[in-house]
Specification:
The structure holds 2 protein chains of 2 kinds. Chain A contains no helices and 11 strands. By secondary structure, chain A is mostly beta strands. In chain A, the strands form 2 sheets. In chain A, strands 2, 4, 5, 6, 9, 10 and 11 form a 7-stranded mixed β-sheet that branches. In chain A, a hairpin with a 7-residue loop joins β9 and β10. By secondary structure, chain B is mostly beta strands. In chain B, 0% of the residues lie in helices and 52% in strands. Chain B contains no helices and 12 strands. Chain B is globular and about 45 Å long. Classes of the chains: A mainly beta, B mainly beta. At the A-B interface, β4, β5, β9 and β10 of A face β5, β6 and β11 of B.
């Protein structure tokens, strides 16, 4: 059974640009969550999508957005990139209810 | 609001020693779930164990064991007979019952196992 797949693995962008990250969940998992990991702030929850609807949102500015498609794949978009957006972005998928989340290897975004 | 605290930032041990990682959590929910994840240098968070708030039974799974105590809001994790491959950052996480699949993580504890 394939795990959570995130693409691309590495990305370098310039300040002011926008970026789209992709996440393919484990087959059958309908919940997809996104997290940002930085040395200063640690792991922070961005948002969760379930059945194409945003179910939860963390405390991030509106420049961070996401969506989920009917096949449960999810994308995350960051507009007007800032240097502080440099981070490891992790995607997790899970089954509904009392279950653990399984994470992808992440996309390491560097903003220069 | 929910919060997870891992007071130990780094632990260094020699192979075969036991390692215990501390985790203290805060939540107002009566139903919640606690997790431990391992993050090797590759970056992926690997699920290790889960505990539900209504089940305080402590268990052992291979070299891993955990001690869940609601009275002190603690969820400690022990690696027995550590190995070099256990070197990683370990995260404790909390999911509240009404919060979907949102996880709140502690700051992580870096474990270094020396041969």
């Amino acid at each position: 059974k394939a795990g959570v797949t995130q693409t691309p693995r590495y990305l370098i962008k310039t300040r002011g640009q926008q970026v789209t990250l992709s996440c393919s969940p484990i087959s059958g998992h309908r919940s997809v969550s996104w997290y940002q990991q930085t040395p200063g702030q640690g792991l922070q929850f961005l948002f969760e999508y379930f059945s194409e609807t945003q179910r939860n949102k963390g405390n991030f500015p509106g420049r961070f957005s996401g969506r989920q498609f009917s096949n449960s794949r999810s994308e995350m978009n960051v507009s007007t990139l800032e240097l502080g957006d440099s981070a490891l972005y992790l995607c997790a998928s899970s089954l509904p209810g009392q279950s653990e989340a399984f994470f992808g290897q992440g996309t390491r975004l560097t903003v220069v | 609001a929910q919060k997870v605290t891992q007071a130990q930032t780094e632990i260094s041990v020699v192979e075969k020693e036991d390692v215990t990682l501390d985790c203290v959590y805060e939540t107002r929910d009566t139903t919640y779930y606690l997790f431990w994840y391992k993050q090797p240098p590759s970056g992926e968070l690997v699920f290790l164990i889960r505990r539900n708030s209504f089940d305080e039974q402590n268990e052992i799974s291979g070299r891993y064991s955990w001690n869940f105590q609601k009275s002190t809001s603690s969820f400690n994790f022990t690696i027995t007979a550590s190995q070099v491959v256990d070197s990683a950052v370990y995260f404790c996480a909390l999911r509240e019952g009404a919060a979907g699949n949102k996880l709140t993580f502690g700051g992580g504890t870096r474990v270094l196992v020396k041969p």
